[in-house]
Amino acid sequence: MTLHGKVVAVTGASSGIGEATARHLASRGASVVLGARRIDRLDRLVAEIEAEGGKAAAVHVDVTDPGDLKALVDVALERFGRLDVFVGNAGVATISPVADLDVEGWAAMVDVNLKGILHGIAAALPVFRSQGGGHFVSVVSTAGLRIVPTQAVYAGTKNAVRTLMEGLRQENTDGTLRTTSISPGYVRTDFSGNAELGIDPRAVGRAIAFAIEQPEDVEIGDLTIRPTRQG
Ligand SMILES: NC(=O)c1ccc[n+]([C@@H]2O[C@H](COP(=O)([O-])OP(=O)(O)OC[C@H]3O[C@@H](n4cnc5c(N)ncnc54)[C@H](OP(=O)(O)O)[C@@H]3O)[C@@H](O)[C@H]2O)c1
Hints:
The chain has helices spanning 16-27, 39-51, 66-80, 103-131, 152-170, 201-212, and strands at 7-11, 31-36, 55-60, 85-88, 134-139, 177-184, 222-225. By secondary structure, the protein is of the alpha/beta class. It starts with 6 loop residues before the first strand and ends in a 6-residue tail after the last strand.
């Protein structure tokens, strides 16, 4: 079981879970292609990964633009010759009761959390098909497993992605496609609603690596990872 030689695209790689995942996968031998809007942070991350002997490339990606996801996949093909795994990690959360009618926040969550993943599928699936294989790993959330007030729309977008991963799996049981939904609980990032309780984002990176490095005939469909003390 190894990541050596795998080419992995990661969205939302400029901070938090995406950055930690990129560092971990690269340290384990994967070539990583990193997408986010804060390209300066990505460029620094690429330089650090390369300085440690890893392989990485950065692409300016806004996941709400389907063309940017296409560019991310194209860079993987141009620089590293293939794409094995697409990690859909970019995400936003605006937390409030539904009755607050935060229509803009709802739109942002649907556009980034759900449509962003769909745009990634549109870009990567044709490549996976022509290569004869590929793996979608999507970062969803325990917010979709334990529904609480103020997170209804956020949880809804994450559960839509969970459903999408399972539906995509059902449509591709010929042994060439794997889908994985990773559900983190509180993780110590800029994003977290509970940074003190949160686990190190590298733990999520290790969970993603675990799903990727399974033999080709083994799929980790759903994986929940949260602080031991999380209720
Ligand atoms: N932290 C937690 O407790 C927790 C728990 C469960 C699930 N999650 C999920 O984990 C994922 C990563 O979050 P995080 O905790 O690592 O927070 P984070 O540090 O805020 O990372 C969010 C990432 O998403 C990117 N992003 C946001 N909007 C984007 C867009 N339109 N296009 C491209 N990239 C975009 C950001 O990059 P740019 O701003 O540079 O574009 C950033 O790299 C999210 O999907 C989140 O829902 C987090």
